[in-house]
Write a structure and sequence with these properties.
The protein is mainly alpha-helical. Helix content is 70%, strand content 0%. Helix 3 runs antiparallel to helix 12, helix 6 packs parallel to helix 11 and helix 9 runs antiparallel to helix 11. The longest helix is centred in the middle third of the chain and has 24 residues. The two termini are 23 Å apart.
Length: 245
């Protein structure tokens, strides 16, 4: 299979978006050796029905987000999970509601610490994905740890604001809720970007996957899982990504 033929198939699918054209492209990548069985299995684990149909035997995919995250780490290492965390961060930050008065008086924390920390972590994850290091990259790990510290301050501020006779009557604004959800997949990143013990990394993988699904859709776990996994499946199949890697 020549590179020219692959480019032609990529162009055709890009123009039509037809599932049959995508299938022809993926089959051609397999035939040319630019896509292997492990990447196909990863795509299937991330919900690609096309990848499932091309596997020699059906692959059983965990449908519980925590189990799914653990399977990703066990078989393919931290990169798919770092991509999941990036998808979740990007999804939340790209769709933030406008600023609005906060009944919990959390605006200074959110705009002064929480949002910048999440933006910095997103940039750190993008740098890691463009050049995954053989050893932990300290700036990225430090950024993830700082997000964890901000997360603690955010949780403490919410708890303090809810105390008193009006406890239970107060609610977070939509913006605060969205940014708070983004913390769930962010905090385990420091563990996955480092070289922690296996049990700790497994726990972080489960936390990250669960948090990403909740961040993307706090109501419908199935929809949240599809949103978190879809871009990883596309990357595994060799399709272009917004990051270019």
């Amino acid at each position: 299979m020549s590179d020219r033929r692959l480019r032609e198939l990529e162009r055709r699918w890009g123009e039509t978006g037809d599932p049959e054209d995508e299938a022809a492209l993926v089959r051609a990548r397999l035939q040319a050796g630019v896509l292997d069985g492990e990447r196909l299995a990863l795509a299937a684990t991330c919900g690609s029905s096309l990848a499932q149909s091309l596997l020699p035997a059906p692959l059983e995919v965990p449908d519980v987000p925590a189990d799914w995250g653990e399977e990703l780490l066990r078989r393919w290492g931290p990169e798919p999970l770092i991509r999941v965390a990036h998808v979740a961060l990007e999804g939340v930050l790209a769709t933030l509601p406008a600023r609005e008065p906060s009944r919990l008086d959390l605006d200074p924390l959110i705009e002064g610490a929480l949002r910048p920390a999440l933006l910095e972590l997103r940039a750190a994850l993008e740098g890691w994905l463009r050049e995954p290091p053989p050893a932990p990259r300290r700036p990225a790990r430090r950024t993830a740890e700082e997000v964890g510290r901000v997360a603690v301050r955010f949780s403490q501020a919410v708890a303090l604001s809810r105390r008193g006779p009006r406890e239970g009557a107060l609610a977070l604004t939509a913006r605060e809720q969205a940014l708070g959800r983004a913390l769930y997949p962010s905090r385990p990143c420091a563990v996955l970007l480092g070289h922690g013990p296996p049990r700790q990394r497994t726990h972080a993988a489960r936390q990250l996957a669960t948090g990403a699904v909740f961040a993307l859709d706090p109501v419908d776990a199935e929809a949240g899982l599809a949103r978190a996994a879809g871009p990883v499946a596309a990357w595994a199949l060799g399709h272009p990504t917004p990051l270019g890697v």
